[in-house]
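Worked Example 4.2. Consider the chain below.
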Amino acid sequence: MKTNTSPNKDLYAQVTDSIIAVMESGKTSHLTWAQSGDGLPRNHQTGAAYQGVNVLLLWAEAMTRGYTSARWLTYRQAAEMGGQVRKGEKSVTCVFFKTLERESENEGDSTEKADSIRLIKPFWLFNLDQVDGIEKPQTDEPRNEFQQIDAAEKVLIHSGAVIHEAGENAFYRPSTDEIYLPERTRFSSEIEFYSVALHELTHWTGARHRLARDFTKRFGTEAYAFEELIAELGSAFLNAELGFSAATIPNHGGYIESWLKVLKNDKRAIFTAASQASQAHRYIMDLVDGVEGTSEQKVA
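Applying the procedure from the previous section yields the following structure tokens:
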């Protein structure tokens, strides 16, 4: 077993560098976060989907190495399930955060207060393609195009967002809390239409009365580019949930240089962007699930 982590390298910097490499590799054409419609990467033992920056790390590793499975395991989990990671296979480094409580004395008295420290920790995963002795799960019957489009349409409708299909540009207008999209017939495909719609829907989640995203203090003039990165990732996560290949937004290449500037200036920026995108993804799907659950109760 080999791990892809240098113990002497800052984990924030290591993860950021790997994401920058993915972005730079697509700089001249387009950036695609995932190559297939296999959904979000999942832990094969627990079935849980990975979140935040780990999704990007696993997608990047799968693309780079040509893995066909969206399932991942730690070395120990593979052994517990009766499998064996093949000799010489390299892992991909993912991260989790751990909060430690530390007691400290207040100055001038004997009372103590608890300070919390947030630590970043690595863990290592192997793709199921790298493991012998574990049968790959039978994939669900893939959704046909009609089912995918129907699911995407439900997301737009059940989100409750006000969406207008008119004009030539796609944008979210905070002042009126409305999304504007060109008519869907103007797009090269319905998948492209939904990808752009989900991008704008991610922007919509950032309103003050929803997730209240505002990074102007942290990123200054680069805050707009940072919000675009969040929306791009949110669209990719939602695309994966719906079974589409993660599509790209039109003229998306123009954003990449801005994103690279932000990431190179702040080694923690990609962690924040991916976390915010995951929150937006979950916020939207919770709205959809809530509407569908209410509908089922009425039918029952």
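The first strand starts at residue 42 and ends at 43. The mean pLDDT is 86. Compare this with Example 4.1 before moving on.
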